[in-house]
Amino acid sequence: MQYLLLIYEDQKRFEQGYDEGEFAEYGAFGQKHAAAIKGGQALQPTTTARTVRVRDGKAVATDGPFAETKEQLGGYYLVEAADSNEAESMAAGIPAARFGSIEVRPIMVFS
Fold first, then answer.
1. Residue 111 lies in a domain
2. What is the pLDDT of residue 67?
């Protein structure tokens, strides 16, 4: 079964750049779970985001999201796991889990 591991962190932690040691940890995570990882990317900060809504048949794009939350979606992994326990175990190995949170969501399969 596939799971999306959504990485939430305070993006202010990266305003001064990225820690080389933490990058190495992500590399080690990727190597350890290479067979299970089906995709994944880091995301640009929320200041670069645009939100699209359709109201009364018209698309409107606005800057943001700028929700007043402590943690923002910063990236994701799409993984193959036997069950939610295995997916949660993988999520616990993501370096960001020490600073933020990892949401584990099963992928919906349609017949």
1. no
2. 67
How many separate domains does the chain show?
Answer: 1
Q: CA 62 → CA 12, 13, 50, 58, 83, distances in Å?
A: 22, 25, 6, 13, 38
The answer to whether the predicted template modeling score (pTM) of the entire model surpasses 0.85 is yes
Domain that holds residue 51: 2-106
- Residue 108 in 3-state DSSP? coil
Integer CA distances (angstroms), 96 to 31, 43, 48, 60, 61, in order = 17, 14, 21, 33, 30
What's the pLDDT score for residue 64? 82
pLDDT value of position 70? 83
> What type of residue is 1?
M
So what's the pLDDT on residue 14? 85
- Taking a C-beta distance cutoff of 8 angstroms, is the pair 45, 11 a contact? yes
Coil, strand or helix: which one is 99?
A: coil
